[in-house]
From TrEMBL:
Pfam families: Sulfatase. Residues 1-21 form the signal peptide. Residues 35-393 form the Sulfatase N-terminal domain. It comes from Seonamhaeicola maritimus. The keyword NADP does not apply. Keywords: Calcium, Hydrolase, Metal-binding, Signal. One of its GO terms (molecular function) is arylsulfatase activity. PANTHER family: ARYLSULFATASE FAMILY MEMBER, ENDO-4-O-SULFATASE. This is Arylsulfatase. Belongs to the sulfatase family. InterPro entries: Alkaline_phosphatase_core_sf (IPR017850), Sulfatase (IPR050738), Sulfatase_CS (IPR024607), Sulfatase_N (IPR000917).
Length: 515
């Protein structure tokens, strides 16, 4: 009976897709049950960095604004975590990161995945999709390490140990990476600010590192210290990373055939620090080097969109654009110096359970189906991408797949759903601080939503933020997006209800799929 109901639901929702195509005066014949799928995942881009949703922005994002005008923009979308690795894991598995861990994977860290994890590229590959990951991985590999770290050096005032290029066997195929998670093809540098500094194609470096990190007199606009020591290909130039990834993604798109569906996970290394806009983009914003890097990121998105159009693939392609978390703490100084608020109206930055740490840009474009220029206030999470795409493709997920994922296809086609779609959404970065969003209410189990550092007093004064002294926090997000009015003591029953539901989620066996 359960599977019959799922089948009936799938038929119903697919009917909604076709009826919405007809409503938009488009032929339903142009809507495929196997649309191409492109996910463009920015790195450390805040809600307010997307010009179309920040009236005071100092950064132009014409291509992303155009993408939003062609599809649906979600004004209340969230990454699973306020940092990188966990959010990527959550997007690709449809489960909250905290069911697995809280931290990031280092340069030579082990895979975040278990072999039992069911991933989005796996289910799409099994369904006949050609799958590719291009760009930042940052989810770990099984490296063939010959020796423990053999170099000790000072990095940003701290002594740390690092691997030499001689400590790694570069000729052994690297296991545990994208090819083992459902991707047919991978090309990238792993992570721009972590070793190894080299290009990896599929499961081998194109050229093995042959020296140790030495960038000479290379200059960066922000965050030069972020380059962690480790093996490097001699002459490695970080300024070539983003342009190279853009070209590789375009080349891969040009190789795709119209009759064979594809999935591209294009994980940008930008605008994450180190901030390194190429010279042709310097001065293109009024927000310093970071603003220029965001402008270049937008340009790269535009090149991908152009490649899809030029190759006749746009009409049958779903494009999802979002970011892994909110903006880095450099955003605080940027706001004070340039008047550009990367977090928009939200309190907090990367790592925070404050809204700014995980409230991210989110756009879905799907010609003939999603109404152009539409905006949804529905609360969604990046863990919902997997269930939604599975529903679109008529893929039945097993009980173990995407346990925290809600299907938001009804929101996209604006039919047959009741808001709120999600019973509740868990916000978390580190293991000691948690938030729970339920409808308009947001509960935090601590007196502060800060990650590792509180917001500075100067920034609090600039934005009118207050510090609180209650043991927990409660906000009504409908009227208080800036989290300035703490209602914790006024609504004890609501606090009790949400605290209990949060604990229920935390105790839940992640192998049991939520209906």
């Amino acid at each position: 009976m359960k599977y019959l109901l799922k089948t009936l639901l799938a038929v119903c929702l697919c009917s909604c897709v076709y009826s919405n195509a007809q409503k938009n005066n488009k032929s339903s014949e142009s809507v495929s049950s196997k649309p191409n799928i492109v996910i463009i995942y920015a790195d450390d881009m805040g809600f307010g960095d997307l010009n179309i949703q920040n009236p005071h922005s100092k950064i132009a994002t014409p291509n992303l604004d155009e993408l939003a005008s062609q599809g649906m923009r979600f004004s209340d979308a969230h990454s699973s975590s306020g940092i990188c690795t966990p959010s990527r894991f959550a997007l690709l598995t449809g489960q909250y990161h905290w069911r697995r861990g809280h931290g990031i994977v280092g340069g030579f860290g082990n895979p975040y995945f278990k072999d039992s994890d069911i991933t989005l590229p796996q289910i799409l590959k099994d369904y006949g999709y050609n799958t590719a990951a291009i760009g930042k991985w940052h989810l770990g590999w099984e490296w063939d390490i010959k020796n423990p770290p053999s170099i000790e050096e000072e990095h940003w005032g701290k002594k740390m140990k690092a691997y030499s290029h001689r400590d790694i066997n570069w000729e052994t195929p690297i296991k545990g990476g994208p090819l083992q998670r459902g991707f047919n093809y991978y090309f990238g540098d792993g992570t721009i600010n972590f070793p190894p500094y080299c290009w990896i194609e599929n499961d081998l470096p194109i050229k093995a590192p042959n020296t140790h990190l030495d960038l000479g007199d290379l200059q960066t606009a922000e965050g030069h210290w972020e380059f962690r020591p480790g093996p490097m290909v001699k002459g490695w130039d970080p300024y070539e990373v983003l342009p190279t990834l853009s070209k590789k993604a375009q080349e891969w798109i040009r190789k795709q055939k119209k009759e064979e569906p594809f999935f591209l996970y294009f994980a940008l290394p930008s605008p994450h620090a180190p901030i390194i806009p190429n010279k042709e983009f310097i001065g293109k914003s009024e927000a310093g080097g970071f603003g220029d890097f965001v402008f270049q990121t937008d340009y790269v998105v535009g090149e991908i969109l152009k490649s899809l159009k030029d190759n006749g693939l746009s009409e049958n392609t779903i494009i999802i654009f979002t970011s892994d978390n909110g903006p880095e703490r450099y955003a605080i100084e940027r706001a004070e110096n340039f008047g550009h608020f990367s977090s928009g109206d939200f309190k907090g930055v990367k790592r925070d359970v404050w809204e700014g740490g995980h409230h991210v840009p989110f756009i879905v474009s799907w010609p003939n189906v999603v109404e152009p220029g539409s905006v949804s206030k529905e609360v969604i999470s990046q863990v919902d991408i997997m269930a939604t795409l599975a529903q679109i493709c008529n893929i039945e997920l097993s009980e173990q797949a995407a346990p925290d994922s809600y299907n938001f296809l009804p929101v996209l086609v604006q039919e047959n759903y009741k808001s709120p779609l999600r019973e509740a959404t868990v916000h978390n970065t580190y293991k000691d601080k948690w938030g729970l969003r339920m409808g308009d209410w947001l509960y935090i189990n601590h007196s502060s939503g800060a990650g590792k550092q509180d917001l500075p007093d100067s920034y609090n004064a600039l934005r009118g933020y207050k510090k609180f002294n209650t043991e927990g926090l409660l906000f009504n997000m409908k009227n208080d997006w800036g989290q300035r009015i703490n209602l914790f003591e006024q609504y004890p029953e609501k606090v009790k209800e949400m605290k209990g539901l949060l604990q229920k989620y935390k105790d839940q066996d992640f192998s049991v799929k939520r209906e």
